[in-house]
Amino acid sequence: MLLYSLLVFIPFLYVVAVSFSGGGExxxxxxxxxxxxxxxxxxxxxxSTNRFINAIGNTIYITVVGxxxxxxxxxxxxxxxxxxxxxxxxxxxxxxxxxxxxxxGLIPNYLLMKSLGLLNTYWALIxxxxxxxxxxxxxxxxxxxxxxxxxxxxxxxxxxEVRILWSVVLPLxxxxxxxxxxxxxxxxxNEFFGAVIYLSKSSMWTVQVLLxxxxxxxTANINNEFSMDEKTTSQLGDSxxxxxxxxxxxxIVTIYPFLQKYFAQGSMVGSIKE
Length: 274
Known about the structure:
membrane, 67% helix, transport, MetI-like, 14 helices, globular
């Protein structure tokens, strides 16, 4: 386990070291894990570029709105399906389960987004994955495990289904909601393929698409209005790229510890019950 941890940690530490290195220091192999001179030029350059700040903003918007829609659609549908008195419940479950076995594919999905007028909109990245069969089934199992007496007591007090869901069920469902919320959040934050397919405007790029432009294509100077000259960005090339990777990781790494206790509780939800 220690060896495996080192295999994971050392490359990450190297990325951090390069992001704080000076111009051209990492290219010459002058250090391994500790740079000779600490420099913040890579971070300063990124935070001064409109394109990188815009990509971070785009990703935050997609993550916040997408995660909220994911949890809303998943929780409401799963709650309805958890009630045995729901008409057509079995047929709906079969339809949902069918989506786990078959999917339309890339070209039909693209044509659908085009016909709906969703190309070059963030809704093309959010709406197709508003929920999924696995999430619905796990949440449904969790809701079914809650005592029915709670629902009955709330109905006696005059609460409707929406009030029961909001005031009774969801407060008791924090483990499963936090677990899937974290999964949805990470998925939206790492959105790449959908953004490449559906977004042709560079101003709408997510941070992952911009990282691909910087690392794969090899473009370090990403600003339209250069705050540094070409020579400087060439010297800081690797430092800028690694700094971009670190900045793009910070939000998820920061949020995860606060949700970890719920994630540990909710990761096994539905593993025993049908």
